[in-house]
Structure formats: C-alpha cells, structure tokens
Amino acid sequence: MRRDVVRRLTEAGFVNAALEGRWLVEQVAGPSADMSVPLAPEDADRLDALLTRRLAGEPLWRVIGEREFWGLPFRLSPDTLEPRPDSETLIEAALATLGPRRGQPLTMLDLGTGTGCLLIAMLHECPAASGLGIDLSSGACEIARANALANGVGERCEIRQGQWTEGLDARFDLILSNPPYIPSRDIAGLDREVREHDPLLALDGGADGLAPYRIFARSLGGHLAPGGFVVLEIGAGQEGDVTAIMREAGWCHRATRRDLGDHPRALIFALH
C-alpha cells in the first residue's frame, strides 16, 4: 500500500516521496492504520484518486484538503491560499506587540481573510477578543466560516464578503492583512503549484505589487481604535516601498519582524 505509493512518487521525481506517501495513505486509512493490511476496495480507489492528483502536480495540501497553521487545522478550497508557515510571523508580531493586552476584549479585523487563518489564530490566542474577516471571494468566506467553527471561535468571529474596508464604519484594536503583493508581470513565472492552483485574486497585487498597500495607507486610519496597530505581510524586497507608502500617509513604522528564512515578512504600523 504505502510502499507502492512511495514508489510511484519517487519514480515521478518527488523529493519527499516517503513523507508524502505516508500522508496520503494516512488521509485514507487513518494515522493508526496497520500498513500491512490491504485497503478496502473503496479506500484503495480513493487513495489512487488522491495519488493521481498529486502526480498531476496538484499541491499536496490541496490534495489532502487542509493544512495546519499555528497548530490549528484549516480547510482549503480553490478560492483560498494555503496558509504558509512564513505567515505565522504576523501572529508572532501581533502577539508580541499586544503583550499583556492579549487578555483584553479586543476587536480585530482581517482583510483578505482567505481561510481565516490569521484571524482565527489570533482569536485562539486572545480568548476575550472578537473579530471580523473580510474577503472579496464568497467561496473564501464560506471556508473561513467553516474554519472558525471547526477551531472553536465561531461565536467570536464574523466573516463578511466585501472589498477591503468599503462600507465598514467600525474601529479595531488590531488590523491584519496578507494581501496580494505579487506584481502582475511576475505571475506567469511563479512556481507551477502556485501559478496553477492558488487563486489569482489572492496573488496579483497590481502592476508593481503594491496596490493594496496604497489602499491601506489611506483607508485604515479611519478604522483603527486609539492605541491600535496594523500588521501587514509583505513580499520579498518590499519593506522599503511599503514603509514609504505608509509613512507618506502619516503612519509610524513601529517594527519589522523576519520570517523563518530571515526575510522581512511582517511590518507593524501605528498612527502615533
């Protein structure tokens, strides 16, 4: 069972064939299954279907249907990005900035929420907080709502379809966003697993990749509560440009937090 899956992945050139093979088999048979026992015919068919998708180039976590973020499981759909470990840098930055405030009844806003991973992780860490996630995609909103319920924060988490802060009149103690930040011209050169399976809506940041930050610079101030702050994810080489855009609009750059590869990933801004 597992041996055949690993063999086929290895022959296809997958570097982590053994690990991926185990995950695919466990997705069907369960983590405690006896690997020496043949699968029932319907389970064998399901495993073969999953393997066929992976061999065709679909990313592993999309084949499995969920991915872990901040120790929590998140369902995926074609309308959402996969939560990635580097984005956990935003959670680290937000929690470090909050300090002892994390126990207070804070309000949080996540723009372009996708799976809801940023907002849900923060609500998980801040048990008295409540939050609103906004996404332009109705499919992403549906998945985010399901993930909020599955991770036990559904009663404190509202998900709304919309374009950034349009029509919003509330103020928040924390605003988070992992916006699309890839320049339009670079989309075609992305890795195949990203280019063909991640939603374009969540990737394309306009001509220079900075379009969302220009919107944030002029719009987020009206939605920040006194003492509040903003945490934004950025792409490679964007720290200087994003900081300049925000500063020109009156924002103070509080700090930068680096990701697992030691690249600037999370920028923290406040108005004072």
TrEMBL record:
Residues 107-181 form the Methyltransferase small domain. Pfam families: MTS (PF05175), PrmC_N (PF17827). Keywords: Methyltransferase, S-adenosyl-L-methionine, Transferase. SUPFAM superfamilies: S-adenosyl-L-methionine-dependent methyltransferases. Substrate binds at N178, P179, P180, Y181. It is an enzyme of class 2 (transferase). Gene3D superfamilies: DNA helicase RuvA subunit, C-terminal domain, Vaccinia Virus protein VP39. CDD domains: AdoMet_MTases. One of its GO terms (biological process) is methylation. Belongs to the protein N5-glutamine methyltransferase family. PrmC subfamily. This is Release factor glutamine methyltransferase. It comes from Bosea massiliensis.
